[in-house]
Amino acid sequence: MYRMFCSFLLSCLFGHAVAQPVPSDPKTAIGWFQRANDQMNIRMPGSTPFHMKVEFQAFPGEELLGTKEKSQIMTGDGLYEEIWLAPHHWRREVTFGSYHAVEVETGQGRKMQASSGYEPSRVLTLLWALLYPVTRDEVSREFQTETGPVWKVDHVMVGNVSLVRISRSFGNQSGNISDSYYFLPQGPLLIENGAGITTSRENDKVFAGKIVPTHISVGARERELVKAELTIEPQGEPDPSLFDLAVPPAEPGETLRPLTSLPGYGVKMPNLDEDYNTFNFGPGRTRPGLVIWRVLDKNGRFREVELIFALREEDKQDAASYMSSMRRAHHRPPEIDGNPCEVWAPMIFM
């Protein structure tokens, strides 16, 4: 039933829903984001301490590999655990294949210990969904810009369920991609679609007055990328040794927290404009319609490059060559507070 619901809603995301317009007021949109954040953010100052355990599965993407290229995408089962006591007193641990990392923050600062300097894409995907059900650039006017797409607010019917949709479109050709968020009338965020990636939340439970989904699914059109089952319970006084890592304080770029170039995350990005200009998509061809997902690592290399969306079949064919060239590209590393860091760096051609 859930897959049928998601399939129907995905068709809505790509323009098949009949909407009932209401005034397109950006303040109203921000109000919906703020209300969802108030209802779903379990890490606010004064929130109840908790222990969270998340068992997840990661699936392959569409890499369009050349004959001599090997898959980079890490897949399989993983486990994430978090002990949260206060905004600056917590412990996060993830185990995923050969990757294992622990990050803690206490009054003495933040530390991190990891088996690799590269955090796998599917781990970033999961933690984005867990840590940022609503991102700071959506709930704060500080990070809103005067230019760019304006949020549109309307209502859609999915079966016999009425949802509020907040959306904005990018691109200037038919079939462009929208950022779309679907809220239940009571306020919780149910499904979000950004740059071709759909995150669905279901099986909610109420924990300490907050709404916590216990099943999370992240996918790209018909492909599931990550699915996770979550449990949460109150946390008593933990063993202090859990927060004692025998390593120096972490550099700003050493973190499990997903970083992006979005406003408010403090990341200084290299100039990636050349990625749009140096690849030849063929004589007489119109600009392609593509969304490509990739992670830019601390060495300025693209990792786990995958195709999320192709508007036309010929765009998909072009994407294979372009993705191959990206895997060979080398940029100046992204930085946070002057320290190399890893970021999501999706590319959208529209």
Keywords:
350 residues; alpha+beta; TolA/TonB C-terminal domain; 2 domains; 13-stranded antiparallel sheet; globular
Brief summary:
With 350 residues, the chain is α+β, with helices and mostly antiparallel strands.
Which SSEs are present, and which pair or pack?
Layout: H1 2-16, E1 20-21, H2 26-40, E2 50-58, E3 76-86, E4 89-96, E5 99-106, E6 109-114, H3 121-131, H4 136-139, E7 152-158, E8 161-169, E9 178-183, E10 189-194, E11 197-207, E12 210-220, E13 223-234, E14 267-268, H5 274-277, E15 290-296, E16 302-310, H6 313-328, E17 335-336, E18 339-340, E19 343-344, E20 347-349
Antiparallel strand pairs: 1-7, 2-3, 2-13, 3-4, 4-5, 5-6, 7-8, 8-9, 9-10, 10-11, 11-12, 12-13, 14-17, 15-16, 15-19, 15-20, 17-18
* DSSP summary: helix tally: 6
Give the topology string: H per helix, E per strand: HEHEEEEEHHEEEEEEEEHEEHEEEE
**CATH topology (fold) name of the largest domain:** outer membrane lipoprotein receptor (LolB), chain A
What's the number of extended β-strand segments?
A: 20
CATH class of the largest domain: Mainly Beta
Percent of residues in beta strands? 35-45%
Main sheet strand line-up: 1-7-8-9-10-11-12-13-2-3-4-5-6
What gap, in angstroms, lies between the N and C termini? 33 Å
Q: Which CATH-level-2 architecture of the largest domain?
A: Clam
User: How large is the radius of gyration?
Assistant: 20 Å
Q: Domains counted in the coordinates: how many?
A: 2
Going by helix content, strand content and strand pairing, the class is alpha+beta
Mean of residue pLDDT values:
85
Shape category: globular
Low-pLDDT windows of residues = 1-5, 10-26
Largest sheet: 13 strands, antiparallel
